[in-house]
């Protein structure tokens, strides 16, 4: 979500404020190559993973993208829905890094954040 990249590339993905599994794959072609493909296959290539391990890795990445954009309340999808609404929260999957970096968001905290902003 860095300004020069978000505006030119990632904003396409954020056209969906209430994402669905298939919309998780809707990205700018440049983002598709570098973020959706290269970042997924680079790990197994660099680690010289067994073909079955690489297949599992790629399948897991695909299913994770679909699950986190599913709109259902499992595997962190509700957190990613908030990310599509508010953009500056819930970047990761699972919430651990967001909690560590102060970018986690819960709907129940919305009132508190708005109050702090206007003080």
Helix and strand topology:
Elements: H1 3-8, H2 29-46, H3 51-68, H4 77-86, H5 96-101, H6 110-117
Main location: membrane
GO molecular function: iron ion binding; oxidoreductase activity
Domain Fatty acid hydroxylase: 1-103
Question: Tags for this entry?
Answer:
single chain; mainly alpha; 6 helices; 0% strand; Sterol_Desaturase_Related; iron ion binding; transmembrane
Describe the structure.
- It comes from Heterosigma akashiwo (Chromophytic alga).
- It is found in: Membrane.
- Keywords: Membrane, Transmembrane, Transmembrane helix.
- GO terms for molecular function: iron ion binding; oxidoreductase activity.
- It holds the Pfam family FA_hydroxylase.
- The protein has 119 residues and is an all-alpha fold.
- It has one domain.
- Helix content is 55%, strand content 0%.
- It is built from six helices and no strands.
- α2 packs antiparallel against α3.
- The longest helix has 18 residues.
- The two termini are 26 Å apart.
Q: How many domains comprise the coordinates?
A: 1
Which blocks of ≥5 consecutive residues have pLDDT under 50? none
* Helicity, as a percent range: 55-70%
Report the sheet-strand fraction.
under 5%
- Written as H for each helix and E for each strand, in order along the chain, the element string is HHHHHH
DSSP, total strands: 0
Biggest sheet layout: none
Mean pLDDT: 76
**Radius of gyration over alpha carbons?**
16 Å
- The number of helical elements comes to 6
Net shape: globular
Q: How does the helix and strand content classify structurally? A: mainly alpha
Distance between the termini: 26 Å
């Amino acid at each position: 979500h860095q300004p020069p990249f978000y505006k030119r590339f990632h904003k396409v993905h954020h056209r969906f404020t209430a994402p669905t599994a298939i919309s998780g794959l809707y990205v700018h072609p440049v983002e598709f190559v570098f973020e959706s493909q290269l970042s997924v296959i680079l790990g197994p290539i660099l680690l010289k993973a067994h073909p079955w391990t690489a297949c599992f890795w790629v399948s897991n990445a695909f299913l994770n993208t679909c699950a986190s954009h599913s709109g259902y309340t499992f595997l962190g999808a509700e957190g990613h829905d908030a990310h599509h609404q508010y953009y500056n929260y819930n970047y990761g999957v699972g919430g651990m890094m967001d909690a560590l970096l102060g970018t986690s968001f819960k709907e129940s905290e919305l009132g508190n954040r708005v109050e702090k902003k206007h003080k």
